[in-house]
Amino acid sequence: MEHILGSEWEITPAGGATGEAYFAKFKDRKLFLKRNSSPFLAVLSAEGIVPKLVWTKRMENGDVITAQHWLTGRELKAEDMDSKKVAALLSKIHHSKELLDMLKRLGKMPLLPKELLEQLEADMHPDLKRLPVIQKGFDYLWRELPNIQAEKYVVCHCDVNHNNWLLSEDNQLYLIDWDGAMIADPAIDLGLLLYSYIPRKNWGEWLNLYGEKLTEDLEKRMKWYVIGQIIFSIKWYKYKNEEAELKYWQDYLNGFV
What we know:
This protein has helices at about 1-5, 40-45, 85-95, 95-105, 115-120, 125-130, 130-145, 185-195, 205-210, 215-240, 245-255; strands at about 10-15, 20-25, 30-35, 55-60, 65-70, 75, 155, 165-170, 175, 180-185. It is α+β, with helices and mostly antiparallel strands.
């Protein structure tokens, strides 16, 4: 990265799963750099959903480096997730024609429930397949599959964990880390957020802020996708051999099925 910015810049890894992100600092100038970000980033920046994109550079080896403003701020805490700002930004994302058009131009197709379920079952570890709670989970997903039909498919972030929400010093809210974005049922994002952070008695109130009514159909779809996401987490932590997380998600799934 030094040969892009110059030796006077202080560049440090930003962490993350891919190891392709960096912080860069020179005097009072600060940038967030990433290698091979999706072209989707430009639209997210234009819509004010992620920190402003400053420049994009294509390297001789074909890599594309993007630079965004490195903002001073903080990640949201779990107790912040019931705010009007969160509901408003997620609603803006789900209703954005510009974001949807861009993902379509990038070749993304809507993720249908049956397709998701088949992907989830693929390559399941034999030890997991034998677990009664996993069997019950899949039985539920297949049984309810005919009832899981969305009226519209939108751009979904698919990981609306509080750690991915950034509140800047000037009180501007952003949703970052878009590597897993897809066109899907908005219930994917809504279910994960509501089940994780909002007491059930407040679901209707929060959805009013978002601009949606809490219907029986939406509840059914949210539960279906959350169970799918829990099974995916169990699959992931088995692969990572993280026993404590594995047990946590198995116990969590037990509460659903």
